[in-house]
Amino acid sequence: CFVDESPVPEPTCAESHGSLATFKSRAGLAIEVVEFCNDRFDALVEMYNDFEPKRAAQGLPPVGRERIVAWLGQLQKTGHNLLALWNGEVIGHSMLCAVDPQRAEFAIFLHQNFRNQGIGTWLTEVTLKYARLKGLRTVWLSVEVNNGSAIRVYRKKGFQVSGMFGPEQEMTLHLEKTQETR
Asked: What phi, psi does 39 have (nearest 5°)?
């Protein structure tokens, strides 16, 4: 993500717009997706502190509380961050890191205890709808070629391979050319 050094205050949870979506996982868990707010910063740090495997995707998330805090602080300045909550606990994080006003890099992380339940698919869907609402026209991501489950989700949502970089592939979605799938 592009790093902008100017401070951008994030809303507190009381100031944010509330729930963006709610859904049930395949295991029947009630999941809520909300915009990131400062009140949940420590909970997000804790999710990443407990995250496995460490440095799973292109060296992310970073290892160690201090590095996680610095990384998340930069992400707050570079775009839009959504959180997946279960019983108020942060279990997932998606981000749209602005490259310019119409393009952003997309990334998603889901705590290991909540994978393979459809939560990542739903969080991706909500994030793409959010990107459209924010006026983004293009979203791209980088994914390891051996991450078959993620690639299947991205293809289902309309992403297409746009480049290969060793063990990673870049995938791009042109939002103005796609329609919402749900």
From this structure: -60, -20
